[in-house]
Amino acid sequence: MSLDDPVVVPTLAPEREAALATQLEPEPQGGGLPSRFACFVTGTDTEIGKTLVSSAMLHALVQAGVRACGMKPVAAGAEKRSGVWHNDDCDQLTAAGNVTLPQNLTTPFLLRRAAAPHIAAELEDQYISPVPILAAYLEVSAASDAVVVEGVGGFRVPLNESFDTADLAEQLDLPVVLVVGMRLGCISHALLTVEAIAQRNLMLAGWIANEVDPDMRFIDENIEALEQRIRAPLLGRVPRLDEPSAAAAATFLDFTRLPNWPAHTPI
Ligand SMILES: Nc1ncnc2c1ncn2[C@@H]1O[C@H](COP(=O)(O)OP(=O)(O)OP(=O)(O)O)[C@@H](O)[C@H]1O
Ligand SMILES: [Mg+2]
């Protein structure tokens, strides 16, 4: 071939060209990508059903066919069994999800004493700071399609001298789901929590009325009062269950109104 010969540009058969063009086109929005769901579950108090609702949510996510993992970043109260420290909440969340990860990722701060976290931490020479929690959250999130993060106690539980669970929700920047433990006094607790969530510019994605007190009077009226004042959907009423379990609680809850809740594709 001499330098004077014309340059021949190779051409592709039209059908091959069309096939290549399709490969280069961006995926249609949402096409083939697993949905990503995450939320922060808080409550009006301690012992009002956050773990039950978080587990019900994980159960529903697993039913929808996604890889779901629970996180309890700070847990206080643990006992040693077969050489391993166990916390009830962590065990329930693990049992309800379907992604098993090392406990130091799902619970970066596992405190032995059942006390306010900043007090338990001090007694155990630990210092709860956001960085290990945020790093763990990223890893858990990378390994799962859906993450449910359970808070500790109510919304403003101190974790160190200048950082509390509301700050944690803010740093994680997750939509918040509020569990209202239905008992006398819960209206004010719920509305103060709603206010604190709004003050941090977090999204209150929904709330749940959990009937923890079987003897509560005027429960319908209380729920109605909350519905009138909370501008987020009521995701359901969980009655007092004889045998509380994730599956049982899930039958009373409709999570489909939560942002990015996966479309139902049972396994
Ligand atoms: N609707 C219900 N019916 C029956 N029992 C319930 C109901 N909701 C919660 N419980 C029970 O009340 C106890 C406290 O619930 P749960 O552990 O979910 O609360 P929590 O808010 O996560 O508490 P903590 O602040 O310790 O994390 C558990 O024994 C749970 O099984
Ligand atoms: Mg709990």
Set out the fold topology:
Elements: H1 14-24, E1 37-43, H2 50-63, E2 68-71, E3 74-76, E4 79-81, E5 84-86, H3 88-96, H4 103-106, E6 109-111, H5 117-123, H6 130-143, E7 146-150, E8 158-160, E9 163-164, H7 165-172, E10 176-181, H8 186-199, E11 204-210, H9 219-229, E12 234-238, H10 246-250
Parallel strand pairs: 1-7, 1-10, 2-7, 3-6, 10-11, 11-12
Antiparallel strand pairs: 4-5, 8-9
The Cα radius of gyration reads: 24 Å
**Which spans have pLDDT < 50 for at least 5 consecutive residues?**
6-12, 16-30
Number of helices: 10
> How does the major sheet shape up?
6 strands, parallel
What's the CATH superfamily, by name?
P-loop containing nucleotide triphosphate hydrolases
What order do the SSEs take from the amino end to the carboxyl end, as H and E? HEHEEEEHHEHHEEEHEHEHEH
The average pLDDT is 90
Helix content: 25-40%
**Shape annotation:** globular
Question: Which architecture would the CATH scheme give at its second level?
Answer: 3-Layer(aba) Sandwich
Overall number of domains: 1
Instruction: Give the percentage of residues in beta strands.
Output: 15-25%
